[in-house]
Design goal:
Number of helices: 11
Strand content: 25-35%
Structural class: alpha+beta
Shape: globular
Helix content: 25-40%
Amino acid sequence: MSVATPLLDRHPCSLDNSSVLHGYLVEQQRGLASGQRFLWSFTENLGKVDPLAVFGALNVQDKVHFYGENPQRGETILAFGICQSLRISGKYRFSLAQQFAEECFQRLVPIGNVQGRSQRPYIFCGFSFFDRPSNRNPFANSFLFLPQIQVVKTSQHCLLSWQISLDGNTNVTDLVDFIGRMLSAIRRAQPARDTHTPSMVVKAPRLTGIEVAKLSKAIASSLEEIAQQRLSKVVLATALDLDYGSRLNVAHCLQRLRQQYGDCYLFSWGNGQGDCFVGASPERLLSLHNQQLVTDALAGSAPRDVDVQGDRQLGQELLHNPKELREHQAVLDYLLQRLRALGLSPQASSLKLLKLANIQHLWTQIQAPLPPHIHPLALVQQLHPTPAVAGVPVAIAEDLIRRHETFDRNLYAAPLGWLDSEGNAEFIVGIRSALLSRNRARLYAGAGIVAGSDPLKEVAEIELKLQTLWRSLI
């Protein structure tokens, strides 16, 4: 289907003016030849609107959506509804995704309405951990969508961009009426009070004896392969399924995560059928702005202490712990090697501590200028999965994960994020996460297994992570 060119000199000054908007769209529609389609993006200033309040007020959890909070950039994003989308799987998924994104941005015409500028529409992407398709998962192996509605809030503004796909069959009257009703609802959105308490799960959940036995056996088997020097590390995870007496409210879950993990990357990814993958990840895969790439080597961790002196001591012990330093160096070396393989010249910062609410990590930031010919999705493909969520070497670790884990990771520890038409992008790693499906929740947690790991201690660590996530999320 070909794409028509809109009459930009006569575009409506506001989505609020329904009569002018209706006339403009009708005029555009009359100019369309058979089979032509008009893709249009319009920017509107929302003023003081909280995207999370919009999420709850419009019941976005039942829509195809992306929600993300980025503390590094002070940015909150909500996107829902589908203007264009792509569902793919297999080893060529990243190149096909790149082609889809390029075609969408080439066809889309942005129209500014906020001080002469437009908010660039984003394409949102969710890639599963493995590239193999599975009919058992609620989420596609790889899914990209250009949203119908996108809200981006920063410290300076809150902008809405509305993407419209117009062809000869579009009912313009219904479309304009829908836009008016949605704009009104978005502007009226207020945070809902969290009064819901799920009734079925009141005690901290625990793995069953069978689950503990399976996980311990997987860890012991992996340690045997590490002893044979087939690999030096593997990250093994498990999933804990919980049932509740009533439906979970995803907006309330995100609110709790915001309160407890405001220094992490909050996210929700919905399939439009009531399934939401949510979490508060400490780990970004990449940040790309103005052709400058930033990624993080984040591996090696220690708890926090409420006492300042005790917390400082834990941090110093972490900085001098040989085991944790080796684990961190493996991740750093991998990222540098993968970036150099693309012809980049990455520069690593000095080793630092990244102190989060309840944990501190060894952290090295990596930066590199990115030439225009390298697409953001080529970077995602090159960096995923990192040793922090797979192991070392990555390929052998992936094989062990497939053999030993009793669940399909799907989106767990996988790349989620967005990109725009100017080559900017943000992708996180979907850890500290859960799958919420109406009145059910599947919680995920894992641990890095290296030489000297104690299976019982690793199982206890994983169980503690699951319980911490449960308290924070549910």
